[in-house]
Amino acid sequence: MEPVLRRLSYVLLFLVLLPIAFRCSNGEVVTLTADTFTDKVKEKDTVWFVKFCVPWCKYCNKLGTLWEDLGKAVEAEDEIEVGEVDCSLNKAVCTKVDIHSYPTFKIFYDGEEFAKYQGKKDVELLKEFVLKEADKATKSNLEDFQDEL
């Protein structure tokens, strides 16, 4: 009976750890790295709102749970993903997208920078901004598609 219990405990452990290993991106902030950034921001029909920060930045630390709260606030929006890049660990990404101060908030669509947020650090204002810019990005993509026809 012991081997059965051992297998059962492995299955239970797997079920507990599975959500941690494969973070669901809807409603959560996705950590982007040099290995994942380019592929993620090129995802078809997906707007990425990305925070670029470093751990030692007092302004980044003052944000507290703002970015996670934003992720939850746009959870129902299928075409919007919220991500973050730690520039101390992913300098190549931050150099490539021209990050010079922290925190910086940028929207990407079809692999290109689409907009930069420079307003107050407030969940509702950030949500309003990303919804407006996502609407612009998807409409511009639709217009480009119609022009090709």
UniProtKB/TrEMBL annotation:
<dbReference type="InterPro" id="IPR051063">
    <property type="entry name" value="PDI"/>
</dbReference>
<comment type="similarity">
    <text>Belongs to the protein disulfide isomerase family.</text>
</comment>
<protein>
    <recommendedName>
        <fullName>Thioredoxin domain-containing protein</fullName>
    </recommendedName>
</protein>
<dbReference type="GO" id="GO:0003756">
    <property type="term" value="F:protein disulfide isomerase activity"/>
</dbReference>
<dbReference type="GO" id="GO:0006457">
    <property type="term" value="P:protein folding"/>
</dbReference>
<dbReference type="Pfam" id="PF00085">
    <property type="entry name" value="Thioredoxin"/>
</dbReference>
<dbReference type="InterPro" id="IPR036249">
    <property type="entry name" value="Thioredoxin-like_sf"/>
</dbReference>
<dbReference type="InterPro" id="IPR013766">
    <property type="entry name" value="Thioredoxin_domain"/>
</dbReference>
<keyword id="KW-0732">Signal</keyword>
<dbReference type="GO" id="GO:0005783">
    <property type="term" value="C:endoplasmic reticulum"/>
</dbReference>
<feature type="domain" description="Thioredoxin">
    <location>
        <begin position="11"/>
        <end position="135"/>
    </location>
</feature>
<feature type="signal peptide">
    <location>
        <begin position="1"/>
        <end position="27"/>
    </location>
</feature>
